[in-house]
Amino acid sequence: MSDQIALDLEEAQELGLKVLRANGFNEAHARSIMDVIYRCQLDDCHSHGLYRLLICVNTVRAGLVDGNESVEISEPSPASIRVDAKNGYSLLAFETGLPHLIEKTKKNGVGLMAINNCFHFSALWPEVEKLSEAGLAAMAMVPSHAWVAPSGGTKGSLGTNPLAFSWPRGEKNPYTFDFATSAIARGEIELAKRAGHPLPEGAAIDEHGKPTIDPNEALKGAMLTFGGYKGSALSTMIELMAGPMIGDLTSLASLEKDGNQGGTPLHGEVIIAFDPKLLGGTDTATNTRLAEALFASISEQGARLPSQRRYAARARNLEAGTVTIPKQLHEDILVLL
Amino acid sequence: MSDQIALDLEEAQELGLKVLRANGFNEAHARSIMDVIYRCQLDDCHSHGLYRLLICVNTVRAGLVDGNESVEISEPSPASIRVDAKNGYSLLAFETGLPHLIEKTKKNGVGLMAINNCFHFSALWPEVEKLSEAGLAAMAMVPSHAWVAPSGGTKGSLGTNPLAFSWPRGEKNPYTFDFATSAIARGEIELAKRAGHPLPEGAAIDEHGKPTIDPNEALKGAMLTFGGYKGSALSTMIELMAGPMIGDLTSLASLEKDGNQGGTPLHGEVIIAFDPKLLGGTDTATNTRLAEALFASISEQGARLPSQRRYAARARNLEAGTVTIPKQLHEDILVLL
Fold this sequence. Notes:
The structure is a homodimer of 337-residue chains.
Chain A: E1 4-8, H1 9-21, H2 27-42, H3 52-61, E2 72-77, E3 80-89, H4 90-108, E4 110-119, H5 125-133, E5 137-141, E6 148-149, E7 162-169, E8 172-180, H6 186-195, E9 204-205, H7 215-220, E10 222-224, H8 228-241, H9 251-257, E11 266-274, H10 276-279, H11 284-300, H12 308-320, E12 322-326, H13 327-334
Parallel strand pairs in A: 3-4, 6-10
Antiparallel strand pairs in A: 1-12, 2-3, 4-11, 5-7, 5-11, 7-8, 9-10
Helix pairs in contact in A: 1-2, 2-4
């Protein structure tokens, strides 16, 4: 007997909305959160799918996030928009700012959205993909908590600081990536600890700054960035751009504010969008041809473009009309109603 | 007896200008090229310093670049500027566009400069540093030739694709990095080949896609990106943003246009600038404090911020009032007069 259950796509969305509504989220927050949770589940990104309902509800029940907080929009400059999430989840702020960011980018060629004072738990790819659905290229960055040591260092100064990028491909799925600038995700250390597995080499150091593959030692020490000093420099750029540049916290300041508890980080997010139609000159056909030739050159030699596993899962689940989750998770979610 | 010679700072600049003027560069091109060559030499970046005079002159003498070509400015959108280098060196295009980019960024919060149809030989850090001297943060990206295999691949699809970033720090030197997204520079393979040295592990593959440390095999095969699939994704982003997004070539198209000769690549460059004063809200003091606390956290644990070696060389050379180059190089340059 399978321990999995298949939920109709609409049923999965309705279930999530009901759970969020029943647990202190107003309609606007519930819809923006469920939209991203659903997109993740549809792509079989289980760690950011329906499972997140449990975390959202627990966080609101613990009084750490207000599910009724409204957001406030302002306009720092002609090509930028600021959305103050007022210590709520980031997703309503993103959804509220999105049409303004698209409009500003299509007018100015480049546009920037700063989200401030948000709790952030979601993947960045659904956000940059939404911009590509509007025909734009986009980058997104967030800091987190300062658990990651800089290259050559021995203790945390940087967050896991993901960078996401998306490029529109017309009717095709966009070219999209979303990766942490840490060598591994924070959650992977927790998982390895619970499973009693070692970490991969080069991912963490102990409290004395020595390389370690022991998850317990890593939790007392620090994580490392991917790609040595280059990954470390990139992560520092993300701290600056998604932090002080938009009037928000670095991962160091965010961890300090949290009293080193390691709760969901409260900070900012920056999204930068570009309109290839405005910036690319008149020969759009050549631009498209060159970009597609690059993608073909990568795929045809057997190297995979990022996100292909997600897109395959999406096609499969849309075809089936269902998403599949563990029965136990389904039961845990039903309890929240 | 030393094989080095110290040149007064003014003398070095005048020498370079004379050489360029005497070899077909008009005053505007000569000044924009020499400005960057001088900045590199002042920071002891010898590979991009006075040595480059030899390459510039040889390239013009061979008729590959026109040192008299003027540049053409246009305005694709309110927050962007385009400079067509008309198959000349990129540096005059950059200098010509710079005041417009600064003005647009200080008005719009974010600004973008596309340079098209340029030959590119210079480091990117002098460019982003100039934006930080104007109080702005900036990123710059260029493609090159498709010598770099994507992660999981066996042949070149990507350029060495450097990414540079700079963050203004008031009176202090900016936080600046400039790194290739390839694991090593193309020139390092040539140097290893001439010296008969092996390459570092993980930097290249042979023509069959197998890892190699033999520079000869690497030249027949392909280079690898830094940081595995993440570096590969980042490099692809640079292809798209500094290529088709601004109506210019990818590294694949640039190599094809060059007939696989491996000459100086002809392509585009994109520079994106941000005004932290406009984007950062009212509490500038806190923004500065948080950024500086991050830099302090990195340096105080013995990890080095990028560019510190350059800045130390700059201080030393400014104090001495000289730059030091090999006597042989000085003689080779004098011959060009």
